[in-house]
TrEMBL record, chain A:
The chain crosses the membrane at residues 26-46, 52-73, 104-122, 129-153, 173-195, 225-247, 253-272, 279-297, 303-319. It holds the Pfam family BPD_transp_2. The keyword Transmembrane applies. Keywords: Cell membrane, Membrane, Transmembrane, Transmembrane helix. It comes from Mesorhizobium hawassense. This is ABC transporter permease.
From TrEMBL, chain B:
CDD domains: ABC_Carb_Monos_I (cd03216). Keywords: ATP-binding, Nucleotide-binding. The keyword Magnesium does not apply. Residues 4-246 form the ABC transporter domain. One of its GO terms (molecular function) is ATP hydrolysis activity. It comes from Mesorhizobium hawassense. This is Sugar ABC transporter ATP-binding protein.
Amino acid sequence: MASETTQPGFWARVQRASVERLHIRLESLVVLLALSTAMALLSPYFLSLSNFLNILLATSTIGVLAIAATFVIGSGGLDLSLGSVMGLAGVAGAFVAVNLGWPSVFAVVACILAGGIAGHINGQLVTRAFVPAFIVTLGMLGLARGLALVISQGRAIYGLPPEIVYIGQGRPFGIPMPVIILVLTAIVAHAVLAYTRFGRHTLALGDSEGAARAAGIRVEHHRRIIYTLSGALAGLAGLLFTARVNAGDPTAGINYELTAITAAIIGGTNLFGGRASILGTMIGALIMGVLQNGLTLLAVQSYYQQMAIGAVLILAVFIDQYQVRKESRV
Amino acid sequence: MTLLSLRGIRKSFGAVDVLHGVDLSVAAGEVVGLVGDNGAGKSTLMKTITGIYRADTGSIEFDGKDILALDPGQRRQLGIEMIYQDLSLAKQQDVASNIFLGREPTKRLFGLFPGFVDKSEMDRQAARMIERLGAHLPSINRSVGSFSGGQQQTVAIARALTFNPKLVIMDEPTAALAVREVQSVLDLIRRLRSEGIAVILISHRLNDVLSVTDRIVVLRHGRADADLVTAKTNMNEVVSRIVGGGDIAAAAAHEQRG
Protein backbone atom coordinates (compact mmCIF):
# COMPACT_ATOMS: atom_id res chain seq x y z
CA MET A 1 0.00 0.00 0.00
CA ALA A 2 2.65 2.47 1.06
CA SER A 3 4.80 1.70 -1.94
CA GLU A 4 2.09 3.02 -4.23
CA THR A 5 2.27 6.53 -2.86
CA THR A 6 5.99 6.84 -2.16
CA GLN A 7 8.29 8.02 -4.93
CA PRO A 8 10.49 5.36 -6.49
CA GLY A 9 14.03 5.40 -5.11
CA PHE A 10 16.90 7.17 -6.78
CA TRP A 11 18.33 3.96 -8.22
CA ALA A 12 14.95 2.91 -9.59
CA ARG A 13 14.52 6.30 -11.26
CA VAL A 14 17.99 6.22 -12.82
CA GLN A 15 17.25 2.70 -14.04
CA ARG A 16 13.95 3.73 -15.59
CA ALA A 17 15.46 6.80 -17.21
CA SER A 18 18.30 4.78 -18.71
CA VAL A 19 15.87 2.23 -20.10
CA GLU A 20 13.47 4.84 -21.47
CA ARG A 21 15.92 7.39 -22.83
CA LEU A 22 18.96 5.37 -23.82
CA HIS A 23 17.40 1.94 -24.13
CA ILE A 24 20.15 0.46 -21.95
CA ARG A 25 19.80 -1.79 -18.97
CA LEU A 26 21.94 -0.25 -16.26
CA GLU A 27 22.87 -3.64 -14.85
CA SER A 28 24.81 -4.53 -17.98
CA LEU A 29 26.95 -1.38 -17.66
CA VAL A 30 27.66 -2.27 -14.03
CA VAL A 31 28.68 -5.78 -15.04
CA LEU A 32 30.98 -4.40 -17.75
CA LEU A 33 32.66 -2.02 -15.29
CA ALA A 34 32.99 -4.67 -12.58
CA LEU A 35 34.41 -7.18 -15.03
CA SER A 36 36.89 -4.64 -16.41
CA THR A 37 37.98 -3.65 -12.91
CA ALA A 38 38.48 -7.27 -11.93
CA MET A 39 40.54 -7.96 -15.07
CA ALA A 40 42.61 -4.82 -14.49
CA LEU A 41 43.41 -5.96 -10.96
CA LEU A 42 44.23 -9.49 -12.05
CA SER A 43 46.35 -8.70 -15.08
CA PRO A 44 48.89 -5.88 -15.52
CA TYR A 45 48.44 -6.03 -19.29
CA PHE A 46 44.69 -5.40 -19.29
CA LEU A 47 44.71 -1.62 -18.83
CA SER A 48 46.48 -0.32 -21.92
CA LEU A 49 45.42 1.43 -25.08
CA SER A 50 46.73 -1.37 -27.27
CA ASN A 51 44.84 -3.99 -25.31
CA PHE A 52 41.72 -1.82 -25.40
CA LEU A 53 41.96 -1.67 -29.19
CA ASN A 54 42.61 -5.42 -29.17
CA ILE A 55 39.37 -6.01 -27.32
CA LEU A 56 37.46 -3.78 -29.71
CA LEU A 57 39.03 -5.49 -32.70
CA ALA A 58 38.20 -8.94 -31.35
CA THR A 59 34.66 -7.73 -30.61
CA SER A 60 34.04 -6.27 -34.07
CA THR A 61 32.95 -9.50 -35.76
CA ILE A 62 30.84 -10.65 -32.83
CA GLY A 63 29.48 -7.12 -32.50
CA VAL A 64 28.11 -7.10 -36.05
CA LEU A 65 26.59 -10.56 -35.56
CA ALA A 66 25.09 -9.42 -32.25
CA ILE A 67 23.38 -6.50 -34.03
CA ALA A 68 21.80 -9.03 -36.39
CA ALA A 69 20.75 -11.19 -33.43
CA THR A 70 19.20 -8.13 -31.74
CA PHE A 71 16.92 -7.38 -34.68
CA VAL A 72 15.86 -10.99 -35.13
CA ILE A 73 15.30 -11.78 -31.45
CA GLY A 74 13.67 -8.39 -30.87
CA SER A 75 11.13 -9.30 -33.57
CA GLY A 76 10.33 -12.55 -31.80
CA GLY A 77 12.46 -14.67 -34.12
CA LEU A 78 15.72 -16.53 -33.83
CA ASP A 79 18.72 -16.92 -36.14
CA LEU A 80 21.02 -19.79 -35.28
CA SER A 81 22.69 -19.68 -38.68
CA LEU A 82 24.63 -16.44 -38.03
CA GLY A 83 28.04 -18.08 -37.55
CA SER A 84 27.69 -20.43 -40.52
CA VAL A 85 26.36 -17.73 -42.83
CA MET A 86 29.29 -15.58 -41.77
CA GLY A 87 31.65 -18.40 -42.75
CA LEU A 88 29.88 -18.91 -46.07
CA ALA A 89 29.99 -15.19 -46.86
CA GLY A 90 33.72 -14.98 -46.14
CA VAL A 91 34.41 -17.91 -48.44
CA ALA A 92 32.16 -16.45 -51.14
CA GLY A 93 34.04 -13.16 -51.01
CA ALA A 94 37.44 -14.85 -51.10
CA PHE A 95 36.31 -17.08 -53.98
CA VAL A 96 35.22 -14.08 -56.03
CA ALA A 97 38.44 -12.17 -55.31
CA VAL A 98 40.98 -15.02 -55.60
CA ASN A 99 39.55 -17.86 -57.71
CA LEU A 100 37.61 -15.62 -60.09
CA GLY A 101 40.08 -12.77 -59.79
CA TRP A 102 37.37 -10.12 -59.91
CA PRO A 103 37.92 -6.62 -58.51
CA SER A 104 37.69 -6.23 -54.74
CA VAL A 105 34.39 -4.35 -54.90
CA PHE A 106 32.75 -7.50 -56.20
CA ALA A 107 34.24 -9.51 -53.35
CA VAL A 108 32.72 -7.09 -50.84
CA VAL A 109 29.36 -7.29 -52.60
CA ALA A 110 29.64 -11.10 -52.76
CA CYS A 111 30.08 -11.34 -48.97
CA ILE A 112 27.02 -9.25 -48.19
CA LEU A 113 24.97 -10.72 -51.02
CA ALA A 114 25.75 -14.31 -49.98
CA GLY A 115 24.72 -13.50 -46.42
CA GLY A 116 21.62 -11.65 -47.57
CA ILE A 117 20.49 -14.52 -49.80
CA ALA A 118 20.95 -17.07 -47.01
CA GLY A 119 19.01 -14.80 -44.66
CA HIS A 120 16.29 -14.24 -47.24
CA ILE A 121 15.87 -18.00 -47.65
CA ASN A 122 15.48 -18.22 -43.87
CA GLY A 123 12.82 -15.53 -44.02
CA GLN A 124 10.92 -17.15 -46.88
CA LEU A 125 10.86 -20.50 -45.11
CA VAL A 126 9.78 -19.02 -41.78
CA THR A 127 6.96 -16.93 -43.24
CA ARG A 128 5.73 -19.04 -46.16
CA ALA A 129 6.49 -22.65 -45.28
CA PHE A 130 5.54 -22.22 -41.61
CA VAL A 131 8.63 -24.07 -40.41
CA PRO A 132 9.62 -22.70 -37.00
CA ALA A 133 12.55 -20.26 -37.06
CA PHE A 134 14.49 -22.53 -34.70
CA ILE A 135 14.41 -25.37 -37.25
CA VAL A 136 14.85 -23.23 -40.36
CA THR A 137 17.94 -21.48 -39.06
CA LEU A 138 19.31 -24.66 -37.50
CA GLY A 139 19.00 -26.25 -40.94
CA MET A 140 20.64 -23.21 -42.52
CA LEU A 141 23.45 -23.57 -39.99
CA GLY A 142 24.25 -26.92 -41.58
CA LEU A 143 23.49 -25.87 -45.15
CA ALA A 144 25.63 -22.73 -45.13
CA ARG A 145 28.55 -24.42 -43.41
CA GLY A 146 28.42 -27.31 -45.88
CA LEU A 147 28.24 -24.96 -48.85
CA ALA A 148 31.22 -22.99 -47.55
CA LEU A 149 33.21 -26.23 -47.38
CA VAL A 150 32.06 -27.26 -50.87
CA ILE A 151 33.02 -23.91 -52.45
CA SER A 152 36.43 -23.84 -50.78
CA GLN A 153 36.89 -27.61 -51.14
CA GLY A 154 37.51 -27.69 -47.41
CA ARG A 155 40.58 -25.46 -47.51
CA ALA A 156 41.07 -21.83 -46.62
CA ILE A 157 41.35 -19.52 -49.64
CA TYR A 158 44.49 -17.38 -49.36
CA GLY A 159 45.90 -14.48 -51.31
CA LEU A 160 43.33 -11.74 -50.92
CA PRO A 161 43.95 -8.42 -52.66
CA PRO A 162 45.34 -5.58 -50.50
CA GLU A 163 42.12 -3.53 -50.58
CA ILE A 164 40.27 -6.36 -48.88
CA VAL A 165 43.06 -6.90 -46.37
CA TYR A 166 42.93 -3.18 -45.58
CA ILE A 167 39.29 -3.59 -44.47
CA GLY A 168 40.51 -6.03 -41.83
CA GLN A 169 43.95 -4.77 -40.96
CA GLY A 170 44.06 -1.10 -41.93
CA ARG A 171 44.37 1.45 -39.14
CA PRO A 172 43.32 4.95 -40.21
CA PHE A 173 44.11 7.35 -37.30
CA GLY A 174 45.42 4.33 -35.42
CA ILE A 175 41.95 2.81 -35.12
CA PRO A 176 41.45 -0.63 -36.66
CA MET A 177 39.10 -0.56 -39.67
CA PRO A 178 36.81 -3.33 -38.32
CA VAL A 179 36.24 -1.22 -35.20
CA ILE A 180 35.31 1.80 -37.31
CA ILE A 181 32.95 -0.32 -39.39
CA LEU A 182 31.37 -1.81 -36.27
CA VAL A 183 30.80 1.60 -34.70
CA LEU A 184 29.25 3.01 -37.88
CA THR A 185 27.05 -0.07 -38.28
CA ALA A 186 25.98 0.17 -34.64
CA ILE A 187 25.07 3.85 -34.94
CA VAL A 188 22.93 3.26 -38.01
CA ALA A 189 21.36 0.13 -36.48
CA HIS A 190 20.59 1.95 -33.24
CA ALA A 191 18.93 4.81 -35.09
CA VAL A 192 16.88 2.38 -37.17
CA LEU A 193 15.77 0.21 -34.24
CA ALA A 194 15.01 2.97 -31.75
CA TYR A 195 13.78 5.85 -33.87
CA THR A 196 12.28 4.66 -37.14
CA ARG A 197 8.92 3.12 -37.92
CA PHE A 198 10.72 -0.01 -39.15
CA GLY A 199 12.42 -0.45 -35.79
CA ARG A 200 9.30 0.24 -33.76
CA HIS A 201 7.31 -2.20 -35.87
CA THR A 202 10.06 -4.77 -35.35
CA LEU A 203 9.68 -4.58 -31.58
CA ALA A 204 5.89 -4.43 -31.72
CA LEU A 205 5.97 -7.56 -33.85
CA GLY A 206 8.11 -9.36 -31.29
CA ASP A 207 5.86 -8.10 -28.52
CA SER A 208 2.56 -9.20 -29.99
CA GLU A 209 2.19 -10.44 -33.54
CA GLY A 210 -1.59 -10.11 -33.23
CA ALA A 211 -1.33 -6.46 -32.23
CA ALA A 212 1.05 -5.76 -35.11
CA ARG A 213 -1.26 -7.47 -37.58
CA ALA A 214 -4.31 -5.62 -36.24
CA ALA A 215 -2.38 -2.37 -36.60
CA GLY A 216 -2.00 -3.07 -40.31
CA ILE A 217 1.68 -3.99 -40.25
CA ARG A 218 2.51 -6.50 -42.95
CA VAL A 219 3.86 -9.06 -40.53
CA GLU A 220 5.25 -11.67 -42.93
CA HIS A 221 6.80 -9.08 -45.22
CA HIS A 222 8.45 -7.44 -42.20
CA ARG A 223 9.85 -10.75 -40.96
CA ARG A 224 11.36 -11.50 -44.37
CA ILE A 225 13.13 -8.15 -44.35
CA ILE A 226 14.49 -8.81 -40.86
CA TYR A 227 15.88 -12.24 -41.71
CA THR A 228 17.40 -10.86 -44.91
CA LEU A 229 18.95 -8.02 -42.92
CA SER A 230 20.28 -10.51 -40.39
CA GLY A 231 21.92 -12.55 -43.13
CA ALA A 232 23.42 -9.46 -44.77
CA LEU A 233 24.92 -8.40 -41.43
CA ALA A 234 26.36 -11.90 -41.01
CA GLY A 235 27.83 -11.35 -44.48
CA LEU A 236 29.42 -8.10 -43.30
CA ALA A 237 30.84 -9.94 -40.28
CA GLY A 238 32.23 -12.56 -42.66
CA LEU A 239 33.91 -9.83 -44.70
CA LEU A 240 35.50 -8.31 -41.58
CA PHE A 241 36.77 -11.67 -40.38
CA THR A 242 38.08 -12.80 -43.77
CA ALA A 243 39.84 -9.48 -44.28
CA ARG A 244 41.36 -9.56 -40.80
CA VAL A 245 42.79 -13.09 -41.04
CA ASN A 246 43.57 -12.61 -44.75
CA ALA A 247 41.89 -15.86 -45.75
CA GLY A 248 38.47 -17.19 -46.71
CA ASP A 249 38.22 -19.84 -44.00
CA PRO A 250 35.26 -22.25 -44.38
CA THR A 251 35.38 -23.00 -40.66
CA ALA A 252 35.19 -19.34 -39.65
CA GLY A 253 32.44 -18.41 -37.24
CA ILE A 254 31.76 -21.81 -35.70
CA ASN A 255 29.81 -21.22 -32.47
CA TYR A 256 29.80 -17.47 -33.06
CA GLU A 257 25.99 -17.45 -32.98
CA LEU A 258 26.28 -18.57 -29.37
CA THR A 259 28.40 -15.56 -28.44
CA ALA A 260 26.34 -13.15 -30.55
CA ILE A 261 23.02 -14.24 -29.07
CA THR A 262 24.55 -14.10 -25.58
CA ALA A 263 25.75 -10.54 -26.20
CA ALA A 264 22.27 -9.50 -27.33
CA ILE A 265 20.60 -11.10 -24.31
CA ILE A 266 23.09 -9.59 -21.84
CA GLY A 267 22.39 -6.24 -23.45
CA GLY A 268 18.75 -6.48 -22.44
CA THR A 269 17.11 -8.05 -25.48
CA ASN A 270 14.08 -10.04 -24.41
CA LEU A 271 14.62 -13.62 -25.59
CA PHE A 272 10.94 -13.75 -26.59
CA GLY A 273 10.97 -10.44 -28.45
CA GLY A 274 9.48 -7.01 -27.91
CA ARG A 275 12.40 -5.38 -26.13
CA ALA A 276 15.83 -4.75 -27.63
CA SER A 277 18.43 -2.03 -28.01
CA ILE A 278 21.58 -1.82 -30.07
CA LEU A 279 23.40 0.24 -27.42
CA GLY A 280 22.65 -2.47 -24.89
CA THR A 281 23.81 -5.15 -27.29
CA MET A 282 27.09 -3.29 -27.83
CA ILE A 283 27.66 -3.32 -24.07
CA GLY A 284 26.84 -7.03 -24.10
CA ALA A 285 29.33 -7.60 -26.92
CA LEU A 286 31.98 -5.67 -24.97
CA ILE A 287 31.30 -7.82 -21.90
CA MET A 288 31.90 -10.92 -24.01
CA GLY A 289 35.03 -9.31 -25.48
CA VAL A 290 36.44 -8.32 -22.08
CA LEU A 291 35.65 -11.77 -20.72
CA GLN A 292 37.46 -13.54 -23.55
CA ASN A 293 40.35 -11.10 -23.56
CA GLY A 294 40.76 -11.25 -19.79
CA LEU A 295 40.65 -15.03 -19.68
CA THR A 296 43.25 -15.16 -22.44
CA LEU A 297 45.52 -12.71 -20.58
CA LEU A 298 45.12 -14.86 -17.49
CA ALA A 299 46.22 -17.83 -19.61
CA VAL A 300 42.96 -19.70 -19.16
CA GLN A 301 42.61 -22.42 -21.80
CA SER A 302 40.20 -21.55 -24.60
CA TYR A 303 38.16 -24.65 -23.76
CA TYR A 304 37.19 -23.01 -20.51
CA GLN A 305 36.33 -19.78 -22.33
CA GLN A 306 33.75 -21.69 -24.36
CA MET A 307 32.27 -22.97 -21.11
CA ALA A 308 32.23 -19.47 -19.66
CA ILE A 309 30.26 -18.12 -22.63
CA GLY A 310 27.68 -20.89 -22.35
CA ALA A 311 27.30 -20.29 -18.62
CA VAL A 312 26.95 -16.52 -19.11
CA LEU A 313 24.16 -17.05 -21.67
CA ILE A 314 22.12 -19.19 -19.30
CA LEU A 315 22.79 -16.82 -16.41
CA ALA A 316 21.76 -13.76 -18.42
CA VAL A 317 18.45 -15.32 -19.46
CA PHE A 318 17.86 -16.48 -15.89
CA ILE A 319 18.36 -12.99 -14.48
CA ASP A 320 16.18 -11.45 -17.18
CA GLN A 321 13.32 -13.88 -16.61
CA TYR A 322 13.66 -13.48 -12.84
CA GLN A 323 13.21 -9.72 -13.19
CA VAL A 324 10.28 -10.08 -15.56
CA ARG A 325 8.53 -12.35 -13.08
CA LYS A 326 9.30 -9.99 -10.22
CA GLU A 327 7.87 -7.02 -12.11
CA SER A 328 4.71 -8.82 -13.19
CA ARG A 329 3.98 -9.78 -9.60
CA VAL A 330 3.21 -6.14 -8.65
CA MET B 1 -27.07 6.71 -45.17
CA THR B 2 -25.49 3.28 -45.31
CA LEU B 3 -21.90 3.30 -44.12
CA LEU B 4 -21.10 -0.38 -44.18
CA SER B 5 -22.82 -3.02 -46.22
CA LEU B 6 -22.00 -6.73 -46.29
CA ARG B 7 -23.65 -9.01 -48.85
CA GLY B 8 -23.49 -12.79 -48.84
CA ILE B 9 -20.29 -13.10 -46.85
CA ARG B 10 -19.00 -16.65 -46.72
CA LYS B 11 -15.94 -17.84 -44.88
CA SER B 12 -14.67 -21.31 -44.13
CA PHE B 13 -11.54 -22.61 -42.48
CA GLY B 14 -10.64 -25.89 -44.13
CA ALA B 15 -13.68 -28.10 -43.83
CA VAL B 16 -15.37 -25.88 -41.25
CA ASP B 17 -17.90 -23.43 -42.67
CA VAL B 18 -18.17 -20.53 -40.25
CA LEU B 19 -20.12 -17.94 -42.22
CA HIS B 20 -22.80 -19.03 -44.71
CA GLY B 21 -23.72 -15.84 -46.49
CA VAL B 22 -24.12 -13.02 -43.99
CA ASP B 23 -25.90 -9.78 -44.92
CA LEU B 24 -25.36 -6.83 -42.63
CA SER B 25 -25.60 -3.09 -42.98
CA VAL B 26 -24.74 -0.29 -40.64
CA ALA B 27 -25.68 3.36 -41.08
CA ALA B 28 -23.46 6.27 -40.11
CA GLY B 29 -23.84 7.07 -36.43
CA GLU B 30 -25.80 3.91 -35.78
CA VAL B 31 -25.07 1.55 -32.89
CA VAL B 32 -25.66 -2.07 -33.88
CA GLY B 33 -25.48 -4.91 -31.39
CA LEU B 34 -24.20 -8.21 -32.73
CA VAL B 35 -25.23 -11.13 -30.57
CA GLY B 36 -25.17 -14.88 -30.91
CA ASP B 37 -24.06 -18.00 -29.15
CA ASN B 38 -20.44 -19.07 -28.90
CA GLY B 39 -19.33 -20.30 -32.29
CA ALA B 40 -22.02 -18.37 -34.18
CA GLY B 41 -19.29 -16.58 -36.13
CA LYS B 42 -19.33 -13.12 -34.55
CA SER B 43 -15.58 -12.66 -34.25
CA THR B 44 -14.92 -14.19 -37.66
CA LEU B 45 -17.45 -11.82 -39.22
CA MET B 46 -15.81 -8.82 -37.57
CA LYS B 47 -12.37 -9.90 -38.72
CA THR B 48 -13.60 -10.09 -42.31
CA ILE B 49 -14.67 -6.47 -41.89
CA THR B 50 -11.29 -5.33 -40.52
CA GLY B 51 -9.43 -7.38 -43.12
CA ILE B 52 -7.63 -9.79 -40.78
CA TYR B 53 -9.56 -12.51 -42.62
CA ARG B 54 -10.50 -12.35 -46.26
CA ALA B 55 -14.05 -13.43 -47.09
CA ASP B 56 -14.26 -16.40 -49.51
CA THR B 57 -17.19 -14.86 -51.36
CA GLY B 58 -19.49 -11.90 -50.94
CA SER B 59 -19.03 -8.16 -51.06
CA ILE B 60 -18.08 -5.54 -48.51
CA GLU B 61 -18.72 -1.90 -49.20
CA PHE B 62 -17.61 0.86 -46.86
CA ASP B 63 -18.49 4.47 -47.46
CA GLY B 64 -19.51 3.56 -51.01
CA LYS B 65 -16.20 1.83 -51.81
CA ASP B 66 -15.57 -1.86 -52.38
CA ILE B 67 -13.00 -2.76 -49.73
CA LEU B 68 -12.84 -6.53 -50.20
CA ALA B 69 -9.32 -6.43 -51.65
CA LEU B 70 -7.85 -4.07 -49.04
CA ASP B 71 -5.53 -5.18 -46.23
CA PRO B 72 -6.10 -4.26 -42.56
CA GLY B 73 -3.85 -1.20 -42.74
CA GLN B 74 -5.71 0.24 -45.73
CA ARG B 75 -9.08 -0.41 -44.11
CA ARG B 76 -7.95 1.40 -40.97
CA GLN B 77 -7.01 4.35 -43.12
CA LEU B 78 -10.55 4.46 -44.46
CA GLY B 79 -11.85 4.67 -40.89
CA ILE B 80 -12.58 1.13 -39.68
CA GLU B 81 -11.26 0.52 -36.18
CA MET B 82 -11.68 -2.47 -33.92
CA ILE B 83 -11.20 -2.91 -30.19
CA TYR B 84 -10.34 -6.57 -29.75
CA GLN B 85 -11.50 -8.68 -26.86
CA ASP B 86 -7.87 -9.47 -25.97
CA LEU B 87 -7.13 -5.76 -26.65
CA SER B 88 -4.24 -6.67 -29.01
CA LEU B 89 -1.78 -4.41 -27.26
CA ALA B 90 2.00 -4.62 -27.49
CA LYS B 91 2.51 -5.01 -23.76
CA GLN B 92 6.17 -4.04 -23.57
CA GLN B 93 5.69 -0.78 -25.47
CA ASP B 94 4.44 2.45 -23.95
CA VAL B 95 1.10 4.17 -24.40
CA ALA B 96 1.95 6.34 -27.39
CA SER B 97 3.69 3.48 -29.20
CA ASN B 98 0.52 1.42 -28.94
CA ILE B 99 -1.85 4.19 -29.93
CA PHE B 100 0.23 5.09 -32.99
CA LEU B 101 1.40 1.60 -33.93
CA GLY B 102 1.47 1.41 -37.72
CA ARG B 103 0.69 5.13 -38.08
CA GLU B 104 3.60 6.86 -36.41
CA PRO B 105 4.14 10.50 -37.37
CA THR B 106 7.64 11.11 -38.72
CA LYS B 107 10.05 14.01 -38.94
CA ARG B 108 13.49 14.68 -40.32
CA LEU B 109 16.45 14.11 -38.03
CA PHE B 110 18.65 17.23 -37.96
CA GLY B 111 16.48 18.40 -40.85
CA LEU B 112 18.26 15.86 -43.03
CA PHE B 113 17.28 12.22 -42.62
CA PRO B 114 13.59 11.54 -43.19
CA GLY B 115 11.57 8.76 -41.62
CA PHE B 116 12.37 9.29 -37.95
CA VAL B 117 9.47 8.78 -35.58
CA ASP B 118 8.31 11.98 -33.91
CA LYS B 119 8.04 10.58 -30.39
CA SER B 120 7.34 13.86 -28.61
CA GLU B 121 4.45 14.58 -30.97
CA MET B 122 3.16 11.04 -30.34
CA ASP B 123 3.38 11.50 -26.57
CA ARG B 124 1.62 14.85 -26.77
CA GLN B 125 -1.29 13.53 -28.83
CA ALA B 126 -1.53 10.36 -26.74
CA ALA B 127 -1.77 12.36 -23.53
CA ARG B 128 -4.46 14.56 -25.05
CA MET B 129 -6.46 11.54 -26.20
CA ILE B 130 -6.26 9.84 -22.79
CA GLU B 131 -7.37 13.07 -21.18
CA ARG B 132 -10.28 13.39 -23.60
CA LEU B 133 -11.43 9.95 -22.53
CA GLY B 134 -11.41 11.20 -18.96
CA ALA B 135 -9.06 8.41 -17.92
CA HIS B 136 -6.11 8.46 -15.59
CA LEU B 137 -2.95 6.50 -16.28
CA PRO B 138 0.03 6.33 -13.89
CA SER B 139 2.45 7.45 -16.59
CA ILE B 140 2.24 7.68 -20.34
CA ASN B 141 5.82 6.46 -20.68
CA ARG B 142 5.35 3.16 -18.89
CA SER B 143 4.91 -0.11 -20.71
CA VAL B 144 1.25 -0.93 -21.18
CA GLY B 145 1.66 -4.36 -19.57
CA SER B 146 2.18 -2.73 -16.18
CA PHE B 147 -1.33 -1.22 -16.24
CA SER B 148 -4.55 -2.66 -14.84
CA GLY B 149 -7.12 -4.26 -17.16
CA GLY B 150 -9.26 -1.13 -17.24
CA GLN B 151 -6.29 1.09 -17.94
CA GLN B 152 -5.17 -1.19 -20.77
CA GLN B 153 -8.64 -0.99 -22.23
CA THR B 154 -8.40 2.80 -22.12
CA VAL B 155 -5.28 2.56 -24.27
CA ALA B 156 -7.03 0.24 -26.72
CA ILE B 157 -9.98 2.62 -26.94
CA ALA B 158 -7.69 5.62 -27.38
CA ARG B 159 -5.96 3.78 -30.22
CA ALA B 160 -9.29 3.19 -31.93
CA LEU B 161 -10.42 6.80 -31.61
CA THR B 162 -7.28 8.83 -32.30
CA PHE B 163 -7.53 8.78 -36.08
CA ASN B 164 -11.16 9.89 -36.37
CA PRO B 165 -12.78 6.58 -37.31
CA LYS B 166 -16.15 6.27 -39.03
CA LEU B 167 -16.86 2.81 -37.64
CA VAL B 168 -15.67 1.29 -34.37
CA ILE B 169 -16.13 -2.42 -33.76
CA MET B 170 -16.01 -3.46 -30.12
CA ASP B 171 -15.59 -7.13 -29.27
CA GLU B 172 -16.83 -7.81 -25.72
CA PRO B 173 -15.59 -4.45 -24.42
CA THR B 174 -17.26 -4.89 -21.03
CA ALA B 175 -16.55 -8.57 -20.37
CA ALA B 176 -13.55 -8.00 -18.12
CA LEU B 177 -14.52 -4.71 -16.50
CA ALA B 178 -15.74 -3.58 -13.12
CA VAL B 179 -19.28 -2.19 -12.87
CA ARG B 180 -18.22 1.45 -12.90
CA GLU B 181 -15.95 0.89 -15.90
CA VAL B 182 -18.80 -0.81 -17.78
CA GLN B 183 -20.90 2.33 -17.41
CA SER B 184 -18.12 4.50 -18.78
CA VAL B 185 -17.76 2.25 -21.84
CA LEU B 186 -21.52 2.46 -22.45
CA ASP B 187 -21.37 6.24 -22.04
CA LEU B 188 -18.53 6.31 -24.53
CA ILE B 189 -20.63 4.40 -27.08
CA ARG B 190 -23.45 6.92 -26.69
CA ARG B 191 -20.97 9.75 -27.15
CA LEU B 192 -19.61 8.18 -30.33
CA ARG B 193 -23.13 7.93 -31.72
CA SER B 194 -23.77 11.59 -30.97
CA GLU B 195 -20.61 12.42 -32.90
CA GLY B 196 -21.88 10.46 -35.89
CA ILE B 197 -19.53 7.49 -35.44
CA ALA B 198 -21.05 4.08 -36.08
CA VAL B 199 -20.46 1.30 -33.57
CA ILE B 200 -20.82 -2.46 -33.83
CA LEU B 201 -21.02 -3.89 -30.34
CA ILE B 202 -20.42 -7.59 -29.77
CA SER B 203 -21.48 -8.62 -26.31
CA HIS B 204 -22.87 -11.46 -24.29
CA ARG B 205 -24.25 -9.00 -21.77
CA LEU B 206 -27.67 -8.50 -23.29
CA ASN B 207 -28.60 -5.81 -20.77
CA ASP B 208 -25.75 -3.68 -22.09
CA VAL B 209 -26.75 -4.39 -25.69
CA LEU B 210 -30.40 -3.52 -25.05
CA SER B 211 -29.55 -0.31 -23.25
CA VAL B 212 -27.15 1.20 -25.76
CA THR B 213 -27.95 -0.04 -29.30
CA ASP B 214 -30.31 1.12 -32.03
CA ARG B 215 -30.54 -2.27 -33.66
CA ILE B 216 -29.67 -5.84 -32.70
CA VAL B 217 -28.53 -8.39 -35.26
CA VAL B 218 -28.62 -12.02 -34.17
CA LEU B 219 -26.02 -14.28 -35.72
CA ARG B 220 -26.94 -17.95 -35.68
CA HIS B 221 -25.16 -20.81 -37.42
CA GLY B 222 -23.20 -18.39 -39.57
CA ARG B 223 -26.22 -16.38 -40.77
CA ALA B 224 -27.78 -13.09 -39.77
CA ASP B 225 -30.87 -14.78 -38.38
CA ALA B 226 -32.71 -11.75 -37.07
CA ASP B 227 -32.51 -7.97 -37.37
CA LEU B 228 -34.38 -6.34 -34.49
CA VAL B 229 -35.05 -2.69 -33.70
CA THR B 230 -33.96 -2.30 -30.09
CA ALA B 231 -36.83 -0.01 -29.14
CA LYS B 232 -39.36 -2.60 -30.34
CA THR B 233 -37.88 -5.73 -28.86
CA ASN B 234 -37.12 -7.16 -25.45
CA MET B 235 -34.90 -9.60 -23.64
CA ASN B 236 -37.24 -12.52 -24.30
CA GLU B 237 -37.26 -12.05 -28.03
CA VAL B 238 -33.50 -11.56 -28.29
CA VAL B 239 -32.78 -14.66 -26.23
CA SER B 240 -35.24 -16.76 -28.19
CA ARG B 241 -33.65 -15.69 -31.46
CA ILE B 242 -30.19 -16.52 -30.12
CA VAL B 243 -31.05 -20.01 -28.91
CA GLY B 244 -33.52 -20.56 -31.74
CA GLY B 245 -36.37 -22.32 -29.96
CA GLY B 246 -36.08 -24.85 -27.20
CA ASP B 247 -36.71 -23.87 -23.63
CA ILE B 248 -36.88 -20.15 -24.28
CA ALA B 249 -38.73 -19.10 -21.18
CA ALA B 250 -36.14 -20.58 -18.84
CA ALA B 251 -33.18 -19.14 -20.77
CA ALA B 252 -34.76 -15.68 -20.87
CA ALA B 253 -35.59 -15.76 -17.18
CA HIS B 254 -32.01 -16.67 -16.47
CA GLU B 255 -30.70 -13.76 -18.54
CA GLN B 256 -33.12 -11.38 -16.85
CA ARG B 257 -31.73 -12.33 -13.46
CA GLY B 258 -28.16 -12.03 -14.61
